[in-house]
Amino acid sequence: MKVVVDMNKCQDHGQCVFAAPDVFSFDEAGRLAYVSDPDDALRDDVEEAADVCPLQAIRIED
Amino acid sequence: MGAPIVVAGASMAGLRAAEQLRAAGWDGPITLVGDEPHMPYNRPPLSKEVLAGKAPFESLAFRPRASVSDVEWRLGAKVVAADLARRIVELHGGEVLPYAGLVVATGMRPGRLRCPGPVDGRHTVRTLADAQGLREALTRPGARVVVVGAGFIGCEVAATAVALGAAEVTVVDPLPLPMMGPLGELLARALLKRHKERGVRFALGTGVAGFEGDDRVTGVVLGDGRVLPADVVVESVGSVANTEWLEGNGLDLADGVLTDEHLRVGGRPAVVAVGDVARFPNARYDGVPRRVEHWSIPTDTAKHAAKVLAAHLAGADIAPAPFAPLPTFWSDQHDFRLQSFGAPVLGKDDVRVLDGDLDGDVLAGYHQGGRLVGVVALGGQAAAAAAARYRAELLKQPALTA
Ligand SMILES: Cc1cc2nc3c(=O)[nH]c(=O)nc-3n(C[C@H](O)[C@H](O)[C@H](O)COP(=O)(O)OP(=O)(O)OC[C@H]3O[C@@H](n4cnc5c(N)ncnc54)[C@H](O)[C@@H]3O)c2cc1C
Ligand code: SF4
Q1: ipTM of predicted assembly, 2 dp
Q2: Which of A17, B223, B227, B363 places its Cα 20 to 30 Å from the Cα of A45?
Q3: MF terms per GO, please (chain B) (predicted)?
């Protein structure tokens, strides 16, 4: 699974971090960091993260 | 092929319901009926980035999951009636759709002021078309703007209007402070100060008595007799549930559609309600049914309702825990953000500063019976991150009363 976050859209809401903490996190500067090729076992979490992102910045590409 | 699940209302809650029905195993037909001509789109930017011109209108469209590529979209079609006993809905024009299951997702529309005066020049913000019209009006040079209603949407629009260079922006509200209903006095006072420092004027403690002007609005007459000159008026005075089509079925439609603890409507397991229109009890709190107009609710309600409905239609006997979402809400105004977790409105009488101070980044805790029921951060990214640390604590809490 491939995950892409449009960093021009992302406004660091952090909702994705609650939904899929294994994939999304904040670095020390408070900016979003993420795993771009997470294991398929995490698909449910990542779909949930894409759903709850207020800016709809997360795209899942298979 | 059997009858479809009909989803009435094709916006965020309708789309999420369709996606979650697929996730819950319903592989029968799904028909979404929506009276707007557009595919589902995201509303929050309509008062923020998109109104400000920082993001294009095209960026609002949701990307439906692949699992719903086979659903039928009936856009520009309005549901005008339903007969729940016979399991049918009727569309404008007379077409009748039988259903196996029905999802009520018709949301809200803006309430309007009913006072004398011209209608032209008065705006609301709910749809794409609304925001397009408002953006055009706000970007005319020298616009004098009056926003009626100092709630979240009104204050967001006021902030955006200032950023767009409007000559004057005044917010009118009968309450003494902005956003006081949902947030209580402490933060409302801090918000008033921040808005004033950034150029927004306020006329508080007074309502609107009427509008001046012949063909279009030139002024707003306040309850205390003052007249505010205005080229653009924005009415953000609350919303009205789109439930007229459900009348005649013996439902409680007093404020949205009343549901049980599993979002089922009128004791009928084949009918569920999702999104802004659902008035549901939240088992996390006092169990009193409330509507919650937060962006997180369409997704949360869709998940629970879809599971319950799909199981019922499959003849499965499931007994999930009652619906108990943790509400979350945000609002962007000027250069600051409000981020809320939980139900601050239940703890407005006992608000404490948990972190920071009211002039900078601040985190407020809302308590009921001494227990934390909600947190609201005001400020920058650091404040929101601080609020997030309390989220786990709020999630752990059992229901306040059994
Ligand atoms: C300007 C604005 C800014 C917002 N900002 C925030 C924010 O910052 N943070 C936050 O948490 N929340 C925010 N919200 C709230 C959030 O957007 C809503 O909670 C969410 O859109 C609700 O989705 P819904 O699908 O339940 O309802 P709606 O989006 O209202 O969808 C209902 C749909 O059903 C259609 N419909 C109605 N009646 C019929 C009928 N009879 N037949 C067919 N179709 C019908 C409607 O046209 C509409 O398309 C904002 C809302 C607005 C309007
Ligand atoms: S939820 Fe969306 S906006 Fe927030 S940090 Fe994640 S990607 Fe960015």
Answers
A1: 0.92
A2: B363
A3: oxidoreductase activity, acting on NAD(P)H
